[in-house]
């Protein structure tokens, strides 16, 4: 049963337990950002997981022996934007990660800056909504350490990740890939900005030079080709307002596994 607790279908199917959880957290229900999530019908799965399991529940980690011999690349595998092509031509020497928005001091980080910070390596299973999974080893800097360097301004609630790839020209005409997570996931110990995969520099197909790993959520949350992180109090004016490229196309914002 403890494994089933992490499963959406258990939580959805468990009306009595869910009611008990809901009455236990009126303060959360009154928060505007939580209301926005609640309206989308996802509040239960997100907060029930957190209340039942605690905020710092780790995704399962595996051993070297479990590594998948082939880790499929999915979505964009070579961004076609001019900005990205120029970065590839210079071997990412001019790449910088911009971190701004609702922060105390906006900063930009070179790859050397990020690699000089403490790193974390984790072997985890990536689950894509399309139905495939793969186990890989990821190395990077914990996102929380980067956010501590810029400092959060009061009211910041989400980190939004902007990518270099124009995955699809649709909706508002811009297919730029982006994603967002809340601050609980941002400071989760397994949430890292990853520059290494399976002991080597991250390959272009997997998001070079830097991608997000947010291990308790499904594949499309793991934004590749990171260019900029923005701290915001709401994502309703970004893209089509749903918090991510795939969310704008109908997928869930909190995509727990
Ligand atoms: N920038 C960007 N990030 C992205 C995607 C993408 O197309 N563009 N695809 C997502 C999806 S659906 C998955 S499953 C994973 C795939 O990561 P991989 O190519 O390393 O397997 O990246 C996610 N992050
Ligand atoms: Mo995916």
TrEMBL record:
Pfam families, sorted: Oxidored_molyb
InterPro entries on file: OxRdtase_Mopterin-bd_dom (IPR000572), OxRdtase_Mopterin-bd_sf (IPR036374), TAT_signal (IPR006311)
Domain Oxidoreductase molybdopterin-binding per the UniProt entry, residue ranges: 91-233
Name the record gives this protein: DMSO/TMAO reductase YedYZ molybdopterin-dependent catalytic subunit
Phylogenetic placement of the source organism: Bacteria, Pseudomonadati, Pseudomonadota, Alphaproteobacteria, Hyphomicrobiales
């Amino acid at each position: 049963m403890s494994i089933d607790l992490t499963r959406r279908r258990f939580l959805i199917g468990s009306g009595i337990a869910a009611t008990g959880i809901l009455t236990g957290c009126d303060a959360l229900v009154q928060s505007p950002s939580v209301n926005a999530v609640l309206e989308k019908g996802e509040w239960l799965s997100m907060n029930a997981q957190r209340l039942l399991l605690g905020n710092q529940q780790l995704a399962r980690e595996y051993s070297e022996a479990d590594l998948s011999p082939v880790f499929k690349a999915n979505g964009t595998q070579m961004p076609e934007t001019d900005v990205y092509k120029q970065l590839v031509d210079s071997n990412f020497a001019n790449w910088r990660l911009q971190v701004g928005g609702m922060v105390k001091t906006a900063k930009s980080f070179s790859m050397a800056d990020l690699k000089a910070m403490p790193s974390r390596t984790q072997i985890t299973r990536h689950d894509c909504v399309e139905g495939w999974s793969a186990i890989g080893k990821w190395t990077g800097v914990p996102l929380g350490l980067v956010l501590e360097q810029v400092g959060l301004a009061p009211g910041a609630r989400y980190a939004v990740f902007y990518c270099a790839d124009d995955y699809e020209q649709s909706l508002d005409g811009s297919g730029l890939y982006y994603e967002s997570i809340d601050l609980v996931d941002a400071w989760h110990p397994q949430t890292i900005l990853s520059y290494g995969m399976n002991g080597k520099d991250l390959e272009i197909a997997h998001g070079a030079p830097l991608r997000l790993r947010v291990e308790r959520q499904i594949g499309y949350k793991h934004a590749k080709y990171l260019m900029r992180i923005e701290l915001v109090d709401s994502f309703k004016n970004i893209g089509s307002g749903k918090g991510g490229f795939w969310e704008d196309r109908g997928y869930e914002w909190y995509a727990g596994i």
